[in-house]
Design brief:
Helix content is about 45%, strand content about 20%. By secondary structure, it is of the alpha/beta class. A hairpin with a 2-residue loop joins β7 and β8. The structure holds 5'-O-[(R)-(carboxyoxy)(hydroxy)phosphoryl]adenosine and zinc ion.
């Protein structure tokens, strides 16, 4: 029979040794970091190697599960992360030809609490089993830093426009962990506005890519939408009014396929113009000459093209992650974790997840 006392004693001893080892041998040997992303409806896993870069990355999306509900169902998301995470980890280890990593990074927030706990628990357990350090990463920081994986890569300091489903922020990135939010949405995030507008136009879930595709058939100037909060000073955004504007336009027009596409076009252009106006202002304000576009909406081809034109006009450089790394993924967490672990950042064996977590406090 299992002697519980001896077992607990062995675990406690082993945990003490693990904790001591992590303190006495800090992180100079961090070569390969396993990254785990489970903040919402995507299970992302990757391995980043300090010499060779990204060794493997895998993404499983839960879209098919949530599509019938028209949005993410948190409990279903947690359960599916449980099902998919360990097989994905096994897969990336195999593809990387390694049996363990030297460190583990996991998304600790912001996001859905149950989904975050799945990733954090697996990460911390695996770290204990492998006797390697683990670190919780701010999901938004992952989005921000993943552009550094591309060639050419930006260098600090830079201005970042983070446009995702949950956030729209302008960030002065001064260095690793040194982020200052210059402006943000006072209501809906840009991605959220894309999703809600797509829904009211009867498009599928997730709405952003569907609306962007439909906008290709839209006629320029068929409708003119406002550019919210651009006539007053400041760097904050507001996108919820655009969605209402789209709804009223749709309800008061002949509801044809062409009108639907025209509204998609006008909506998308209003979002892009608004982002461009505020970015331009933030570039003037900071004097930065590098702009990083991050987050799911950054995959939008029209947005990418029009920001490139802005960069040419202003003689600055704009950097994008590849579209696959604009939306949620494990590579951004592996890479951010690698940067933090090699910088000697550590965390205690106990861990917390943060459903709400501002980038201002990530240092
Ligand atoms: O960064 P992300 O994958 O998740 C969050 O952290 O929120 O962003 C997802 C958001 C969704 O709102 C989705 O509709 C939007 O990004 N999105 C797009 C496009 N691809 C994804 N929005 C506009 N155009 C796209 N091509
Ligand atoms: Zn995200």
């Amino acid at each position: 029979m299992l002697d519980c006392g001896a077992f607990l004693c062995a675990i406690t001893q082993s945990t003490r040794t693990y904790a001591r080892d992590l303190l006495t041998h800090p992180t100079e040997n961090i070569m390969r970091v396993l990254g785990i992303e489970t903040s919402c409806d995507e299970t992302g896993v990757a391995i980043y190697d300090s010499q060779e870069g990204l060794l493997a990355h895998r993404l499983y999306t839960q879209i098919a599960i949530h599509a019938q509900y028209g949005g993410v169902v948190p409990e279903l998301a947690s359960r599916d992360h449980i099902r998919k995470l360990i097989p994905l980890i096994q897969q990336v280890l195999k593809e990387s030809h390694i049996v363990k990593a030297d460190g583990i990074a996991y998304t600790a927030g912001p996001g859905l609490i149950g989904a975050l706990l799945v990733g954090a628990t697996v990460a911390r357990s695996l770290a204990w089993g492998w006797q390697v350090p683990a670190i919780g990463i701010n999901h938004l920081e992952g989005h921000l830093l993943v552009a550094l994986l591309e060639q050419p890569a930006p260098t600090f300091p830079f201005l970042a426009l983070l446009v995702s489903g949950g956030h729209t922020q302008l960030i002065a990135a001064q260095g690793l962990g040194q982020y200052h939010i210059l402006g943000e949405s006072v209501d809906d995030a840009a991605g959220e506005a894309f999703d809600k507008t797509a829904k009211l136009l009867g498009l599928g879930y997730p709405g952003g890519p569907a609306l962007a595709q439909l906008a290709q058939q839209g006629r320029p100037h068929a409708f003119e939408f406002p550019r919210p909060m651009t006539t007053r000073p400041g760097l904050d955004f507001s996108f919820s009014g655009l969605k209402t504007h789209a709804l009223i336009t749709w309800q008061t027009s002949a509801q044809t396929d062409q009108v639907r596409a025209d509204i998609a076009y006008a909506f998308q252009q209003a979002v892009i113009d608004t982002l461009i106006i505020k970015c331009r202002r933030a570039l003037q304000h900071t004097g930065f000459t590098q702009l990083v576009i991050a987050g799911g909406v950054g995959a939008n081809q029209q947005l990418r093209q029009q920001f490139r034109q802005l960069a040419d006009r202003l003689h600055i450089t704009v950097y994008y992650p590849r579209p696959l790394f604009c939306t949620d993924n494990g590579a951004m967490i592996a890479y951010a974790g690698h940067l933090h672990l090699t910088a000697g950042h550590t965390e205690p064996l106990s861990f917390k997840v943060h459903p709400r977590w501002s980038l201002n406090n990530s240092a």
